[in-house]
Amino acid sequence: MPYLARLVAITKVAAVTREIIPFIHFQAQQKGVEVTDDTKVAILQVENIPSYHIVFLDTEISIEDLEEELEKNDTKLARETRALLAKQMKSRK
User: Fold this and answer.
1) Mean pLDDT of the chain
2) For residues 3 and 7, what is the distance between their CA atoms, to the nearest angstrom?
3) Of all helices (H) and strands (E), which one includes residue 39?
4) Which residue has the higher pLDDT, 89 or 74?
5) Which residues have CB under 8 Å from 71's CB, separation 6+?
6) In angstroms, rounded to a whole number, what is the distance separating the alpha carbons of residues 16 and 78?
7) What are the helix and strand counts (H, E) for the chain?
8) DSSP track, the chain
9) What's residue 93's pLDDT?
10) Distance CA 67, CA 14 (A)
11) pTM, two decimal places
12) Which of 22, 51, 70, 84 has the fewest CB atoms within 10 Å of its CB?
């Protein structure tokens, strides 16, 4: 059964708590994204594990790309999270 990722916040990096900053920098490095205080991110909490997944909303990632990325880690977007993110992200369709 896949893990569920739920939306914690949509915000700019400047407003993120210290606890989450390392996740932002790690994932930015992995994805080759340059992060500034003004970078807009969606913070997802993965249920039952102490992990966050960061979505860089200023990039060209689609909701479908995000779902494929999460599936690689046996994670799915919670239904309400998908609906909220779909309003913020483009679609491949």
Assistant:
1) 92
2) 13
3) none
4) 74
5) 2
6) 22
7) 3, 4
8) --EEEEEEEEEEGGGS-TTTHHHHHHHHHHHT----TT-EEEEEEETTTTEEEEEETTS--BHHHHHHHHHTTTEEE-HHHHHHHHHHSB---
9) 52
10) 26
11) 0.90
12) 22
